C-alpha cells in the first residue's frame, strides 16, 4: 500500500508541475488586466501542434520547435491583446466573450490545418521510464516538471526584481496610480500577454512531449488553468505552483484510493472548499491577512 | 404556322423523353461529427457514406442519392438541430452518429420527425429498447462483448483488469464483459476513468501492485489507449495480454505509435493491409481510393455498410411506390444480405442480430486477425505485450 501511495504522490507532483506550467500564463494576464483569457488553452495547443509539425516534418527533437513556437504563439498572444484592448466598456465581461470566440476560431484553425487526428511525440527518450527506487515516471514528465519550476522561479524573480516586472505588479495593484508613476499601462499589459505567450509555448511543447494532443483539447486546458488561477489567488506565482501541485496530488490520490471516475469531482470539491475557506484563493488570502 | 407547331410538338416530346430518362433524386441527410472531439471517427464514417453514394449511383442509374451533410461538431445539441434542419429540408432519412452520446439525441429528434435513422456509432443497448420504430443500426455492444470475452476465454486467463472510460458505450461494455467473465469464474477488477484523465500511472500502478491480472482490457478511445499504453510501458505490469476495443487495432495507430502497439489487440473486422475478397469489397476499396487517395479503414467500412443498406432500401421502396407512403422502414426491415461486416439483417428492434466483431493484433506493422479461429489470418502472439 505504501508503494501505491508513494507512486500516487509522485505522479500527482509531476502532473501538478505540468498543470502549473499551463496555468501560469493565464494567471499573469489575470493578475495584470483582471481578465480571464479563455483562449489561453488554445495558445498552449497551438505551441503543441507546432512541436508536432516540426517533429513529424523535419524529424527532429520537438524541443527544437521552441523558437518557432515562441514566435508564432507570442504573435497570437499579442493579437489576442490587440482585440481585448479595443474593448471600451465592461472589459471583464466582454473580454470573456471575445476570448472565448477567439478560442473557437483557433480550435477550428488547428482543425483545418492539422485535422482531427490525435498526436503525440515519437521521441523514444521522452517516453522512457525514469526510475527512482520504487517510483516511476516518464523522462519527459520529470524534465518538464523541472522546466516548470525554473520558469516559475524566473517569473517570480522577474516580477519581484525587474523594472518591467514591478510595473506589471503596479498596474495589477492600481492602474491609475501606476500611470501617475510614469508607467505605460498599455505596454505593461502587452508585456504580460507576451509573457503568457512564452509560458504557453513551453507548456504546449511539454504537453506534446508527454501527453496526447487533439484539436478539442484547448477548452479543457483553459478550464484547468482557470481553476488553478482562482485557487492560487489573483496573480500569485507561488500560489499557482502550490495550487497546481495540490490539485495534481488530490486527483492522483483520488484515483489510487477511490476511483478515477471521481477525479474531476474531487478536483472541483477542492476548488470549492478552498474558495469557501479562503475567498481570495490560497495566496490572495494570506497576502490580505499579512 | 403549321411548321412552328410541329417543331414545338417535337421539342415537347423530346423534353418528355429526356425527363423520363432522368433518375429520381432522393435526398438523404447525414448528421455526423466532422469537427470536435469525435471528428476522427465521424470523418472516417462520412468518407464511407460518400463512397456508398458513389457506388450506389453507379449501380442503380435510375435512382440518384444526394447526401446532405451537417456537422454536429461532436455536440449533442447540434446533432438535434442538424436532424431538425434536415427534416425541414424533406430528407427521406438520416444516416450518422459517431458515438452513443450523439446518436441518443439525434435518433430521438429523427423519431419525432418520423424519419428513418441508421447508425454504426450507437452501440448502446438503450437505443433498441426505447421503442423507436424507425431506428436501425448495423453493430451493437453485444458484438464487441462476444468477441472480447470469447478471446479471453480462449486465452484461458484467470484474472482480468478492465480499465474503462465512463462514457456511455464503454461503461456498458465494461458491465457486460465483467458479467460474462465473472460468470466464467474469472476474477475481474474494474477501473473506471474520467474521460478528462491526464495520467494513467496511478491506475496502472494499482493494476500492477494490487490486481496482478493475467490481462488488461482497455475500453476507451485512441487518446485513452495512448495514455494507458504509455503508463503501462513505464510501469510494466506483469500481464500476458493487452486487449482494447474500437480505435486500437487499426493502421493509424500502427503508423502513429509503432512503439506502443506491438502485440496489442483490439476489435477489428479486417486485417491490414485490407484484403477484400468479395466483389463489393473490391468495388468499395477501388472507389474509396479514387475518392480519397488512401486505403479505407473500419470506420469508412461501417459508414459504407450503413449507407448502402439505407440507399438500397430507398431504391426498393421507390420501385414499389411505397417510399412516399412511409414504407422505407418496412423495406429496411426486409434487408438481408452479406455485407463487408458479415450478414446484415434488422430485427423488430432495428438491431443487427448477426453482428460479431473479430479481434486483430498489431504484429510487425500489420494488423493480423487472430480471433475467431475461422477468420484468423495469422497466429496470435500470446503472451504478448509492447515491452
Automatic annotation (TrEMBL), chain A:
Gene3D superfamilies: ABC transporter involved in vitamin B12 uptake, BtuC. Belongs to the binding-protein-dependent transport system permease family. LivHM subfamily. This is High-affinity branched-chain amino acid transport system permease protein LivH. It is found in: Cell membrane. GO terms for biological process: amino acid transport. It is a multi-pass membrane protein. Its main location: membrane. The keyword Repeat does not apply. GO terms for molecular function: transmembrane transporter activity. Keywords: Amino-acid transport, Cell membrane, Membrane, Transmembrane, Transmembrane helix, Transport. InterPro entries: ABC_BtuC-like, ABC_transp_permease, BCAA_transport_permease. One of its GO terms (cellular component) is plasma membrane. The chain crosses the membrane at residues 30-52, 64-84, 96-114, 142-159, 190-213, 225-247, 267-285. PANTHER family: AMINO ACID ABC TRANSPORTER PERMEASE PROTEIN, BRANCHED-CHAIN AMINO ACID TRANSPORT SYSTEM PERMEASE PROTEIN LIVH. It comes from the Bacteria. It comes from Collimonas arenae.
UniProtKB/TrEMBL annotation, chain B:
This is Branched-chain amino acid ABC transporter. The keyword Acyltransferase does not apply. Residues 26-349 form the Leucine-binding protein domain. It comes from the Bacteria. It holds the Pfam family Peripla_BP_6. Residues 1-23 form the signal peptide. InterPro entries: BCAA_transport, Leu-bd, Peripla_BP_I. The lineage of its organism: Bacteria, Pseudomonadati, Pseudomonadota, Betaproteobacteria, Burkholderiales. It comes from Collimonas arenae. Belongs to the leucine-binding protein family. Keywords: Signal.
Amino acid at each position: 500500500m505504501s508503494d501505491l501511495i508513494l507512486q500516487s504522490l509522485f505522479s500527482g507532483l509531476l502532473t501538478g508541475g505540468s498543470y502549473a506550467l499551463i496555468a501560469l500564463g493565464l494567471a499573469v494576464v489575470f493578475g495584470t488586466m483582471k481578465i480571464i483569457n479563455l483562449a489561453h488553452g488554445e495558445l498552449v495547443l497551438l505551441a503543441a501542434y507546432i512541436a508536432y509539425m516540426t517533429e513529424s516534418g523535419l524529424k527532429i527533437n520537438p524541443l527544437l520547435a521552441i523558437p518557432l513556437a515562441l514566435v508564432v504563439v507570442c504573435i497570437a498572444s499579442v493579437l489576442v491583446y490587440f482585440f481585448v484592448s479595443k474593448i471600451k466598456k465592461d472589459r471583464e465581461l466582454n473580454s470573456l466573450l471575445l476570448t472565448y470566440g477567439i478560442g473557437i476560431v483557433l480550435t477550428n484553425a488547428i482543425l483545418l490545418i492539422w485535422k482531427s487526428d490525435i498526436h503525440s511525440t515519437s521521441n523514444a527518450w521522452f517516453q522512457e521510464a525514469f526510475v527512482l527506487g520504487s517510483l516511476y515516471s516518464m523522462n519527459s514528465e520529470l524534465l518538464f516538471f523541472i522546466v516548470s519550476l525554473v520558469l516559475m522561479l524566473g517569473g517570480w524573480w522577474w516580477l519581484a526584481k525587474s523594472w518591467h516586472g514591478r510595473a506589471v505588479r503596479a498596474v495589477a495593484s492600481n492602474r491609475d496610480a501606476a500611470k501617475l508613476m510614469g508607467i505605460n499601462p498599455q505596454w505593461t499589459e502587452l508585456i504580460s500577454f507576451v509573457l503568457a505567450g512564452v509560458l504557453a509555448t513551453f507548456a504546449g511543447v511539454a504537453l506534446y512531449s508527454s501527453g496526447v494532443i487533439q484539436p478539442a483539447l484547448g477548452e479543457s486546458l483553459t478550464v484547468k488553468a482557470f481553476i488553478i488561477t482562482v485557487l492560487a489567488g489573483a496573480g500569485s506565482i507561488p500560489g499557482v505552483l502550490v495550487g497546481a501541485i495540490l490539485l495534481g496530488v488530490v486527483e492522483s490520490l483520488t484515483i489510487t484510493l477511490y476511483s478515477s471516475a471521481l477525479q474531476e469531482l474531487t478536483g472541483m470539491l477542492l476548488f470549492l472548499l478552498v474558495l469557501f475557506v479562503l475567498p481570495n484563493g490560497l495566496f490572495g488570502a494570506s497576502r490580505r491577512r499579512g | 404556322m403549321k411548321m412552328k407547331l410541329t417543331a414545338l410538338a417535337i421539342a415537347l416530346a423530346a423534353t418528355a423523353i429526356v425527363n423520363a430518362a432522368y433518375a429520381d433524386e432522393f435526398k438523404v441527410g447525414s448528421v455526423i461529427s466532422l469537427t470536435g472531439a469525435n471528428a476522427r471517427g465521424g470523418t472516417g464514417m462520412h468518407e464511407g457514406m460518400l463512397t456508398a453514394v458513389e457506388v450506389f449511383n453507379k449501380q442503380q442509374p435510375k435512382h440518384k442519392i444526394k447526401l446532405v451533410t451537417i456537422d454536429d461538431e461532436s455536440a449533442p445539441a447540434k446533432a438535434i438541430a442538424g436532424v431538425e434542419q434536415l427534416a425541414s429540408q424533406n430528407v427521406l432519412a438520416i444516416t450518422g452518429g459517431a458515438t452513443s452520446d450523439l446518436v441518443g439525441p439525434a435518433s430521438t429528434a429523427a423519431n419525432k420527425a418520423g424519419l428513418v435513422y441508421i447508425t454504426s456509432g450507437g452501440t448502446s443497448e438503450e437505443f433498441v429498447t426505447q421503442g423507436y420504430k424507425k431506428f436501425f443500426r448495423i453493430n451493437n455492444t453485444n458484438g464487441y462483448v462476444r468477441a472480447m470475452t470469447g478471446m479471453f476465454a480462449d486465452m484461458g486467463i484467470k484474472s482480468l483488469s478492465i480499465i474503462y472510460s465512463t462514457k456511455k458505450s464503454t461503461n456498458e461494455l465494461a458491465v457486460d464483459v465483467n458479467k460474462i467473465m465473472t460468470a466464467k469464474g474469472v476474477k475481474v477488477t474494474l477501473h473506471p476513468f474520467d474521460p478528462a484523465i491526464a495520467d494513467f500511472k496511478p491506475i496502472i500502478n494499482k493494476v500492477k501492485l494490487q490486481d496482478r491480472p493475467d490481462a488488461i482490457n482497455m475500453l476507451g478511445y485512441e487518446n485513452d489507449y495512448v495514455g494507458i499504453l504509455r503508463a503501462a510501458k513505464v510501469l510494466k505490469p506483469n500481464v500476458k495480454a493487452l486487449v482494447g476495443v474500437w480505435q486500437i487495432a487499426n493502421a493509424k495507430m500502427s503508423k502513429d505509435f509503432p512503439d506502443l502497439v506491438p502485440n496489442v489487440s483490439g476489435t477489428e473486422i479486417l486485417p491490414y493491409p485490407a484484403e477484400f475478397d468479395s466483389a463489393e469489397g473490391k468495388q468499395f476499396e477501388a472507389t474509396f481510393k479514387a475518392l480519397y487517395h488512401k486505403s479505407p479503414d473500419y470506420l469508412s467500412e461501417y459508414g459504407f455498410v450503413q449507407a448502402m443498406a439505407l440507399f438500397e432500401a430507398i431504391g426498393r421502396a421507390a420501385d414499389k411506390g411505397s417510399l412516399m407512403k412511409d414504407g422505407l422502414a418496412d423495406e429496411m426491415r426486409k434487408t438481408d444480405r452479406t455485407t463487408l461486416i458479415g450478414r446484415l439483417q434488422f430485427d423488430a428492434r432495428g438491431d443487427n442480430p448477426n453482428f460479431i466483431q473479430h479481434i486483430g493484433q498489431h504484429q510487425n506493422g500489420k494488423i493480423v486477425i487472430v480471433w475467431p479461429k475461422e477468420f484468423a489470418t495469422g497466429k496470435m502472439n500470446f503472451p504478448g505485450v509492447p515491452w
